[in-house]
């Protein structure tokens, strides 16, 4: 049978270990909350920053987006966001290793993040076909606008002739049936 002092020592050790582990997990949580990852695509024309939950906290663009169609800009925003989000599990793994080490709980946390965030986008996406690319001109009102095609000529519809059978207005009588 274990001596009472041995039991007290084991309980004290367990309490200290639990308190230290809780403190390490608190440090991990604080560091994870500070995660901010920024990634750029299209030669740096589009940048997206995501926070620790993967939600964008900032989007920035350079003048190079003026050469892109709206669809290309949107696709590049999504690609930059996915690229930033895909870096989260690796950054989380670094923080976990520094704060709580390797145990079943920390592995579960990292595995869950790896499943929750997207893989990095493919780097070499094919360019859209030339006919699919639309040019968007951004300039001042003083610049000459290209001529517009003429509006089609619309002729008014001929006036409607009244139907002679349609002249009854029911006078002071109701058109509803009385039972």
Structural class: alpha+beta
Count of individual helical segments: 4
Task: State the helical fraction.
Answer: 40-55%
Major beta-sheet overview: 3 strands, antiparallel
Extract low-pLDDT stretches: 124-135
How much of the sequence is in beta strands? Answer: 5-15%
- The rounded Rg comes to 34 Å
Number of strands: 3
Shape: elongated
Mean pLDDT: 80
- Euclidean distance between termini CA atoms: 101 Å
- The order of strands across the largest sheet is 1-2-3
Helix and strand run: HEEEHHH
Q: What report would you give on this structure?
A:
This protein is α+β, with helices and mostly antiparallel strands and 179 residues long. 40% of the residues lie in helices and 10% in strands. It has helices at 4-33, 70-86, 88-99, 104-116; strands at residues 36-41, 46-51, 56-61. Helix 3 (88-99) runs antiparallel to helix 4 (104-116). The longest helix has 30 residues, at 4-33. Mean pLDDT is 80; it is low at 124-135.
How are the SSEs placed, and which strands pair?
Blueprint: H1 4-33, E1 36-41, E2 46-51, E3 56-61, H2 70-86, H3 88-99, H4 104-116
Antiparallel strand pairs: 1-2, 2-3
């Amino acid at each position: 049978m274990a001596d009472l002092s041995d039991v007290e020592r084991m309980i004290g050790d367990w309490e200290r270990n639990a308190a230290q582990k809780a403190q390490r997990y608190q440090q991990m949580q604080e560091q994870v909350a500070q995660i901010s990852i920024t990634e750029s695509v299209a030669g740096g024309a589009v940048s997206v920053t995501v926070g620790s939950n993967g939600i964008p906290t900032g989007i920035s663009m350079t003048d190079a987006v003026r050469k892109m169609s709206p669809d290309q800009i949107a696709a590049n925003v999504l690609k930059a966001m996915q690229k930033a989000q895909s870096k989260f599990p690796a950054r989380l793994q670094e923080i976990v290793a520094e704060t709580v080490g390797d145990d079943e709980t920390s592995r579960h946390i990292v595995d869950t993040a790896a499943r929750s965030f997207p893989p990095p986008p493919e780097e070499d996406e094919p360019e859209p076909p030339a006919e699919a690319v639309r040019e968007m001109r951004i300039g001042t009102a003083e610049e000459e606008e290209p001529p517009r095609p003429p509006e089609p000529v619309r002729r008014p519809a001929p006036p409607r002739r009244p139907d002679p059978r349609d002249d009854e207005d029911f006078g002071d009588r109701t058109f509803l049936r009385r039972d």
